[in-house]
Structures are given as C-alpha cells and as structure tokens.
Amino acid sequence: PICTALTTGRMTDDKDVLRDVWFGRIPTCFTLYQDEITEREAEPYYLLLPRVSYLTLVTDKVKKHFQKVMRQEDISEIWFEYEGTPLKWHYPIGLLFDLLASSSALPWNIIVHFKSFPEKDLLHCPSKDAIEAHFMSCVKEADALKHKSQVINEMQKKDHKQLWMGLQNDRFDQFWAINRKLMEYPAEENGFRYIPFRIYQTTTERPFIQKLFRPVAADGQLHTLGDLLKEVCPSALAPEDGEKKNQVMIHGIEPMLETPLQWLSEHLSYPDNFLHISIIPQPT
Amino acid sequence: MEEDEFFGEKTFQHFCAEFIKHSQQISDGWEWRTSKDCSEGYMCKTQFQMKPGTLVSHPGTSAHVQTCLPVEEALELPPDDFEVTETTAGSEVVKYEYHVLYSCSYQVPVLYFRASFLDGRPLALKDIWEGIHECYKSQLLQEPWDTITQQEHPVLGQPFFVLHPCKTNEFMTPVLENSRKINRSVNYITSWLSIVGPVVGLNLPLSYARTAS
C-alpha cells in the first residue's frame, strides 16, 4: 500500500501509512550456528519480525527454542549474524534487513550464536532496560533536533514509559497517542527545526551519515528527499544522464525523490522518530 | 551546514585545534583524527592506568582510598613513604582511549571512551561503573542509564562508553556566563573536559587553564 501511494504520487490517507509502517513484518528463519554444542539436533525457528522493533526485544521465543537443546554451561549472551556480519541489535530490524538482505530471497536467514560474543563489533544487551534506554535516548535526540527538546522535556515520565510500552507490546494506538505530540510543530513554522535522519551504506567505513538539515528552505519551499541526498550524500544519486546505480530505501520501499522531507519525517520515521535510510546497490 | 548556535561544528574544531596546540607543547598526547570519507573529525588520546579497585594505603590512615592513579605517578612514590597494605589479586594495567566528538543534535562536545586490558580484553560496563569517582556515584546510582552507557562510536562504528550529552548545557552555561562577567575568554573544550574528564579518570594538567584561547 505505501508502495503504490509513494511511487505513483496518488494521495492516500496518511493514517494508513502510519499503520502500514508499524505493522510491517519480515519472515525470518533462525538457525543455530553449527559449532554450538547441542544435546540433540536444533530445528530452525520461523518468526515474523516487526520491522520497527529491535532484535533482542522480539526474540525471546527464539532464545528459548534453542536453549532447550543446549546445556546451561554452553550458553552465554545471544547474538545474531547474517552472512558473516554480526547484526547490531540497536539498529531497527527493518533497517538491518533493507541494508543487508533486501536483494535476497525470503525468508531472511539469520544465524544464532551463544558464544564468542564479538566485543569489537556489537554492543552488549544485558536486559530489556538496555533496549529501553537506547530507544528513549534516540527519541530524545530526535526531539533535540525537531523541537530543541521542548516537547520531550514537557512530557511526564509516564508518557515516556507509554512510548516504550507501546513499542514493546506492539500497541499502535498506545504508542501514537503520545508520539503524535512529537510530530507537531508551531503553526507559524512549516515543519520541524531540523529533520532527524541517518543514512546508511555498507560500502563506507563510517556507520552512518547524520547532519543538520532543515525541512524548509529560506524561500519557504519544502525540501525533498532528493534535496537531502544532494546535500549530504551526493554519491547516492544517479548522475544527470547516467544510469541509476543505487536504491534509496526506507521501510522496504523507494520513495520518490520529490517527496517532501517533512512528510517523510512525520510518516516514515521509525518509532525512535528517526528516518533510517539505506543506500544499497541497484539489484541487477 | 547550519551554524546559528554559538557552539557549531566549526567552533568545536577551532577550540579543539587550540587545545591540541597546547597538548603538543606539554606532550599531553592529544591528536586530531578524521575519517576517510568525511570532513568531520575528533580529538583522541590514549592513556594507561591501574585497574579501578586497586587499593593503596598510606601508613597512618585507616581508610582505604580507591584511586585511579596514572601508572607513572604510582611508580614514582618512594617505597618508604607508603606501604601497600592491600592490593586486589593481580591488579592490572588498563588502556583507556578517550575520544572527543561533536554532537550536531545537541550542539555540544561528547566524551566517548573505551578501556581494555593489555591483552585486548575489554572492560565491561559494570567495571567502568565501579571505577567512577566517588563524588559522581550518587548521581549514577539514581539513574545509571542516563549518564554512562555503551554506544556505537559514530565514526568508527565500534562499541564505546559515552557520557550522555543532554545535561552538558546545564553545567556549561554557568561557566560561560562567568567568563563573560569577568571578561575573560575561555576555551569551551578545555572547560568542558576539565569538568567531565575526571568522572572517568581523565585529568587535565593545570597549564591548559593558563593558555589564552
């Protein structure tokens, strides 16, 4: 549904877009790493992963399934890998998939590890509190960009808690009851102060590009996705009369470059209020 | 990019350059690094310390003092002036790396750091927490997730510990206001680092303060 709306430019009910983003799922097959020590054969485990959530938040069942065939002493912190790349649990699931696996056939095949935690590559995830702290830290940073932290700081602790509980329990209405306030802006402005975004590419050393960028130009024109890329990541765009080398992907789709950035920020942000944008090679 | 705030990226780079100039004069070890694919950079320094939790006691005092001494200072104490009454078994040398980056979201500098033993084994968050200076512990105990957390280094992409930047403006504003009052210009980075550094074992020699910015 988002596909049609954004690639043909046909107007669609904005609320539907929010729901489609929230309920996006990726069919995934989890397989235990072959060198893990098991007492009997471990069957793969299939799960639909929510694009907007985090791996360590939604894989309790996966952990339990594999721990059933292992001895306690062979189990330490769980971590996930795709085609040799350790998966960063602190990146949203949809971002990881778009960036690393979107050109491959479904289901997404993830390997599960219980030993040799890659200390140099991955953050530890000692508890659900760590995920909550990370999530809230991103939400706060996004609001620092959008509203100089005024909206998030005005909220009570229970509102912050509601954002987290909404995400954790997959409760769209509970989440958006609070999040809608983070999507407002003063009547006299045409948008947020700066747009919270991060652009990811596997080909660079740097994990992502994040810069200050306003949604509205000095003359009052709304900046587009194309304007953003031209300014902060020009290599992502095809040269004037050259061939398209890359896909610019958010939530598994390629929005038209003419889409206003303010609209994208309000409708295609992840629950952390950031636009996480993947630049991937055009599949042949 | 946009720089309508008083502490934009260019200002950050300027103060860091001044800071590093002085560091070079006193061989304090700070360097500037840039990543291959962008113009932004950061300051960094490596230092070696005794692992937090090493207990060193002076004769005549009954209290055990938890310290985080730079290795050179610990070794310089003449043997008959102090008596090691207790050390944790196998106290070890820890390598600390400190990185000062600019946060465009909060428009303040941010202190990233990581610690490992000489064999490469990293220190865990709980070891870091235990090594925090006594006077900061009470704040940390109340809200541990608010102050020091493990995060991805935005340029290197590797796990580092971070002192959270959202309270920076709170403590820097009085410093800057005071410097305006007494009409003496101040290097923002020097002032900021002299406040946050000691929390995590990073101390600045006093000569930084005497340098005009």
From TrEMBL, chain A:
It holds the Pfam family ATG5_HBR. It is found in: Cytoplasm; Preautophagosomal structure membrane. It is a peripheral membrane protein. GO terms for biological process: apoptotic process; autophagosome assembly; autophagy of mitochondrion; cellular response to nitrogen starvation; immune system process; negative regulation of programmed cell death; piecemeal microautophagy of the nucleus. One of its GO terms (cellular component) is phagophore. InterPro entries: Atg5, ATG5_HBR, Atg5_HR, ATG5_UblA, Atg5_UblA_dom_sf, ATG5_UblB. Keywords: Acetylation, Apoptosis, Autophagy, Cytoplasm, Immunity, Isopeptide bond, Membrane, Ubl conjugation. The keyword Ubl conjugation applies. Its main location: cytoplasm. Residues 129-184 form the Autophagy protein ATG5 alpha-helical bundle region domain. Belongs to the ATG5 family. Forms a conjugate with ATG12. Part of the minor complex composed of 4 sets of ATG12-ATG5 and ATG16L1 (400 kDa); this complex interacts with ATG3 leading to disruption of ATG7 interaction and promotion of ATG8-like proteins lipidation. Forms an 800-kDa complex composed of ATG12-ATG5 and ATG16L2. The ATG12-ATG5 conjugate interacts with RAB33A; this interaction is bridged by ATG16L1 and promotes ATG12-ATG5-ATG16L1 complex recruitment to phagophores. Interacts with TECPR1; the interaction is direct and does not take place when ATG16L1 is associated with the ATG5-ATG12 conjugate. Conjugated with ATG12. This is Autophagy protein 5. The lineage of its organism: Eukaryota, Metazoa, Chordata, Craniata, Vertebrata.
Automatic annotation (TrEMBL), chain B:
GO terms for biological process: autophagosome assembly; autophagy of mitochondrion; protein modification by small protein conjugation; protein transport. It comes from the Eukaryota. GO terms for cellular component: cytosol. The lineage of its organism: Eukaryota, Metazoa, Chordata, Craniata, Vertebrata. Pfam families: Autophagy_act_C (PF03987). The keyword Cell cycle does not apply. It comes from Mustela putorius furo. This is Ubiquitin-like-conjugating enzyme ATG10. Gene3D superfamilies: 3.30.1460.50. GO terms for molecular function: Atg12 conjugating enzyme activity. Belongs to the ATG10 family. It is found in: Cytoplasm. InterPro entries: Atg3/Atg10. Keywords: Autophagy, Cytoplasm, Protein transport, Transferase, Transport, Ubl conjugation pathway. The keyword Cell inner membrane does not apply.
